[in-house]
């Protein structure tokens, strides 16, 4: 027992002995100091039969607070029986008429009792018939519920308590009219935070995943993700060139879908060496591990038995599987068939491939059939080839349609385009407007009209309207910094291997050429054999094995003799002594103490041997391996350790690291010889020629070769450098032509030997130049990012990012217990505003007393306890640099939990204060404040809207939230504040607005003036100005007038008008593009397009209606009384 003091009743202020665990115990005294009486059941308490299932224990009674698993409404009050069911009533706000409360009949077995946990917000009607609010302090197994309200605390029986249901508060005025007014302090903290969240939502068009992902923000990636996420049908081919971030674009989509549906099923099908990389990227950058209910499966693309249909299917390097569609190998054909089955059963599909359609018609068509099997069911590769050829002429015209051309040339190009589309009235109109702009010499208008014309035609002739492709252009490089190309410095080492190989191969070449002469196919095959042999120049053992294998095939006697000579000459050559050890010695002088080097060996065996030699020189902790002979997970771990090391290190790799890997963090790239295929070398260089941070130093490149320049290896190096230009620019978009030019170059070397290098360079240049023009013709259409208006997600988003420091400060003010009294009082850890830190739910007051946030315990357990110990930051650069860090933005789990609580909680939603202004010379003036969020919500379905119900029907099974994101892009959400007088007219005079604009400041004895919160006692002074009989109607009349004023405000009307124009333009463009495609389609494609057209018509109508009649959501309201006297003065 300890000494206690009675806080009320006739013994108030007197001491008594009480239990230290009071009121949890059944102590001898209660809060009044009286001997506690045995607990009596109220006479009017009617018992009901015990609920089955989980609502066991005490029998259910009318007035009990219960939760049903049959809905998501949270706490409801038991009010009656309904046959075999029970009727629950849900409480929203005190001012709500009881007859207006929502009721639902639920089964008994679905019920559990509401846990009356500490800090749970409760309401009740006191003996004066007035609403009161407070928080539960404690309750026990006897159902004694101890509540603390303003200047009062005590026991309240459960049947008299009300708890808000788990729905956002829709009627803050209900609290005001009931006299339950809070201090403006919390309102002044929560509103800026919610405005910041709404501003971020507006900027990213509801695409929460972008801001909260730990990534650098780049325009082409953001816009690509937006194109996918605003489409109800999310089946896309992401075809960006190598190194431009297809994985990042996919990661944004994955995170957004997880935010929309935390139980999402995701299946990824990936090349084996990319599985761990994808896991790491999605975990570190997109925090997929935050979504505990999600099912995210990573599968190798060579293990179809592990592929399953999912809500979202992602296939990386999809062209590799697509090439199996027509394979003669039953196992490979079956693998593609399984992919088609899984893709068909998955509503969302992302395929990643940089392989262009040109010259890859079979594989590309297979990918199109995965995207849209109904449309392309009957399409053949020949059909696709003809479509590409038809597009080429259009692309050629558009390449010549540049705004800077002389007027006569522009008019000629426009005439050609108009002739190509004789029945297109919209195109004719654009051409006419362009002609008028040319005649008027209006340069800006010419640019806009030509862009509109390009967009219009591009959509019709795009290979597939859901193929998104970004190319490397000068404009892109200005905003997306890549590592760039580096011509390798030739590093000769003391070895005769290069010259020895050239001599023996030249003798073989003569015999092989004689055997193949006159047969074009045989020459090509023999040229490829020469290429393979030359690639083994710096691996004598591999070259010897090559010769032995070829000699065992059906070659003639002369060639076999030459091959046997190769075997004999190389029989006693030691690879380790002539190549591996000298290379390792040369490597030790190439890099500084902190540089990381990637070395590509000519074969797996030689690379492993070079790694062994480097370990002897540098130690095993500085040498890492990425080899086909190593298990993929081991190679992945080695790559991660290599990336994280901060001292000198070497990663030794073979061809297994040439595709899909990101090696942009390396400082030095070393080629030991060069691969025989130019496309392989392009892939290899692409590992480093990727995105690079601004402070990244340029990487260097070396090529290790023999001392003799006049060799086959030297000739091939010159062809790659001067013919392909591969060390200067990317040739990734020219894959087919590069393969053909590669074969042509080796054919010339086969026929002429090393003296043919000049002719080979010229021939390669000619072939690539022709192909470049053809690719430009295709990309003139496919690379256009057609948009229906000038909205830019990226531009708006960067505006928001520029004020991230402001958001950090206002959020910290709202959360940190060390900042402002009366906030949510989280315990700050570290300093997340500028570095790493966080906000914990358990803090300590002086004297070691525990303190938890002012959030109900059940919500803390659900939303915040799982985040215990998390680290976060408001700094994007720190979130990118560090692992497992929350980036505090709209879309982050912690920030969203805070935002969700504020939308549901009633604290700070209705406030009241008496503002004492010593210089106020007017009468006491009551003023109402209303803060409205204005937004378009096409998914709200009023009974009068058949159109919106039809939208629900046609979008069933699709991503309906994509339509909301599209609406956010057209009418960004806005918060509007309106001040209204007691007679329901708007206050617009400067003197009033100035008096109302200053923040809440409590009175201070040393200073005249200050603000008094209208608590339960002080509100009586407000009743003197607005009688209690008129109190409700006065506030409601002001609210009704405020709603009309908001919708009639000039800035809102202008925003609605702009959004309506954007929506109309967007709908017109989308429907026109679909109809133009439909006019040129037939069969299954036409049927699918007609369905798309109808869906877009319904979506467009619903968007137009939602924008025309935007939703008003009242966030908060308040009463401010402007007075020249203190609240205590008469």
From TrEMBL:
Keyword Hydrolase belongs to the record: yes
SUPFAM superfamilies: P-loop containing nucleoside triphosphate hydrolases
Keywords: Hydrolase
Upper classification of the organism: Bacteria, Bacillati, Actinomycetota, Actinomycetes, Propionibacteriales
One Pfam family this sequence matches: Helicase_C
NCBIfam families: DpdE
Chain positions covered by the region annotation Disordered: 27-57
One GO MF term: hydrolase activity
Domain Helicase ATP-binding: 227-374
Coiled-coil ranges from the UniProt annotation: none
Name of the featured protein: ATP-dependent helicase HepA
